[in-house]
Amino acid sequence: MEMPRNERSPENPQILVVGQDGTALGGGGDEGSREIPVTEQVEQPAKVMRIGSMIKQLLEEVRAAPLDEASRVRLKEIHASSVKELEDGLAPELVEELERLSLPFTDEVVPSDAELRIAQAQLVGWLEGLFHGIQTTLFAQQMAARAQLEQMRRALPPGMSPEGDDEHMGGRSGGPYL
Questions:
Q1: Which residues contact 64 (CB under 8 A, 6 or more apart)?
Q2: Domain locations in the chain?
Q3: CA 84 to chain centre
Q4: pLDDT tens per residue, range 59-92
Q5: CA 40 to CA 26: how far, in whole Å?
């Protein structure tokens, strides 16, 4: 049986293209539904930032020191609880993406140093991508707001713009010197 193209699955992941206002422009398959801006997909940004900083610091520590079996078991637990805590601060769309990308460790086997480093680095990379996406969206929103404000200023009749207010104050224009 062939799966429809617009269905999401591991073989057919959803790709979002984000516009200037932070909303998805297409590729989602649900044309009629309202898309959520990336900035609103992080429901608890402070929590996500704290956990992200902790995970990044842990990665640096794991790279710097050799790990014995007890520390690898502990780091495996920290990794699992960090992913769980991150999921609590994210919208369902981002939780699904995180779950697809971060495969859990098996209960029976203690992961090696390399496996732990890879898992931590992958999580740090995903979080940095998320933060860059948020920053890009905020920048695009600021630029769109500036453009809209400038367009509104140009639409004002002569003498109504903020620059025109200086002319009503004795004909003087502001400058670096009085």
A1: none
A2: 44-136
A3: 17
A4: 888 888 888 999 999 999 999 899 999 998 888 9
A5: 17
User: For residue 64, which amino acid is it?
Assistant: A
Name, in order, each residue with C-beta under 8 angstroms of 54's C-beta and a sequence gap of 6 or more. 82
- The total of other beta-carbon atoms located within 10 Å of residue 139's CB is 11
Take residue 89 and report the two structure tokens written for it. Answer: 């601060």
Angle of helix 92-101 relative to helix 113-155, nearest 10 degrees, comes to 150
pLDDT recorded at residue 174: 58
- What whole-number percentage of the chain has pLDDT above 70? 69
CA distance linking residue 161 with residue 164, whole number of Å: 5
Q: Hey, how many other C-beta atoms are within 10 angstroms of the C-beta on 151? A: 9
- Is the CB of residue 21 less than 8 Å from the CB of residue 34? no
Q: Please state, in angstroms and rounded to a whole number, the distance separating the CA atoms of residues 115 and 28.
A: 33
The 10s digit of each residue's pLDDT in 134-145 is 888 888 889 989
Ranges of beta strands (E only) in the chain are: 17-18, 24-26
The number of angstroms, rounded, from the C-alpha of 52 to the middle of its chain's C-alpha atoms is: 12
**Any idea which residue has 């780091």 for tokens?**
75
Helix (H, G, I), strand (E, B) or coil at 84: helix
